[in-house]
Write the structure tokens for this entry.
Amino acid sequence: MSDTGPHLTAGRTAHGPYALDIDPGTAGWSHSALRIVELAPGATHTFATGDSEWIVLPLSGGCTVRVDGRDFELTGRTGVFAGVTDFAYVPRDAEATVTSRDGGRFALPGARCTHRLPARYGPAAGVPVELRGAGRCSRQVHNFAAADVFEADRLIAVEVLTPGGNWSSYPPHKHDEHRPGQESRLEEIYYFEIAPHAGADGFAYQRVSPSADGGTDVLAEVRTGDAVLIPDGWHGPSIAAPGHALYYLNVMAGPDAERAWLIRDHPDHAWIRDTWRDADVDARLPFPQEPSPPQEPR
């Protein structure tokens, strides 16, 4: 576990060009990583991928990603609540340069890996959007790098948007044991952004409860720019305050031979899934998708 604890408030891990910088060493685990880089108009950021694979994911703004002699033009989006975005996959053992003509904020989810896969463009049109849950447990999932959607060696990453007042990441679930066909071992990072309302900043709550003696135990008020590290334990709910939509980016990776998201629900709360069959999805979903022109990589 990170020396700074599992709840990392905004700015706590800022380092060099990164507003947030979590790597396996600072997190105290073996695989998962996340960086947030903020670029002024016309600015460039170059990084060596080392022993990890990465995705360049626009949070706001667009950019060009240059890697392995190719340029990938990312249209991006105005913000995380404006719909899905295109993205670029950057392999290990490479150098990547991110350039933003108009400026923006970009997430770099990553994972230590073994195999070097080709650099690739991920179009926004190819991102599956899932409406999960029902009623006050309704949320929207952007499965841009889910294990069964986008090829990577270790990295799994998705975005979740939750309307204000709803419970997300519920029922509590875990993935900290290797149970073939039932549960994966995955280290997970939650990165949060919360929509303001009438000029007031929003907040949310994140719970992680131990799955074994001495395990991770968190009840945190989270705000934009915060992250929570989950090396183990039942995680959820993620609770959005009324009037403030909640966004979180999930970054996962682990040591199992199979790259899979296999979870086990908390036995005291798994029954909630049965109630969704007779309930409607929150009418506020899906979140509107801003129009964007089709963009092909060069």
Observations:
- The two ends are 41 Å apart (CA to CA).
